[in-house]
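Researcher: I need the complex structure. Ligand is iron/sulfur cluster. Inputs:
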Amino acid sequence: MKSNSVTKDDIFKCTMCGECCVGYGGTYITEDDIKRIAEFTKVDGTSFVEKYCNLSAGKPVLAVDEDGKCVFFKNKCSIHPVKPRMCRAWPYIEGVLKEPSNWKLMATACEGIRTNFSDEDVVRCILEEQKKL
Ligand code: SF4
Ligand code: SF4
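Model: Output:
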């Protein structure tokens, strides 16, 4: 495949396996995330934080259910249109721009990441995606 024709959909396709939605304290949320998700779930911001968040190092993170999954994981993400920036950004993240070999490491935990592309293509796609966030 010609380098410039490689797109974000070539290097990553989410299989909705839900692996990244498991584990306590993994999903930080911003003020803007809280506003958007609270509106979507029809609760006010304060109640939203009390009901759906925990604090980690003083910052709100999404709470998890007894099964260890994010409170919003119901076979798939139930708040997909307004999911937190951190979830929307994955896997087009800063850490790969700093160290491209992280892409292959991340692929060991995320089955949607494809590793048969050059670092150059991966970095270019990430830079393009970051502009859209
Ligand atoms: S681990 Fe990767 S493939 Fe699975 S749901 Fe998360 S982003 Fe999608
Ligand atoms: S908000 Fe959605 S994508 Fe993000 S961790 Fe929760 S269920 Fe997964």
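Model: Summary of the prediction. Residues 14-20, 90, 110-112 surround iron/sulfur cluster (ligand 1) (CB under 6 Å).
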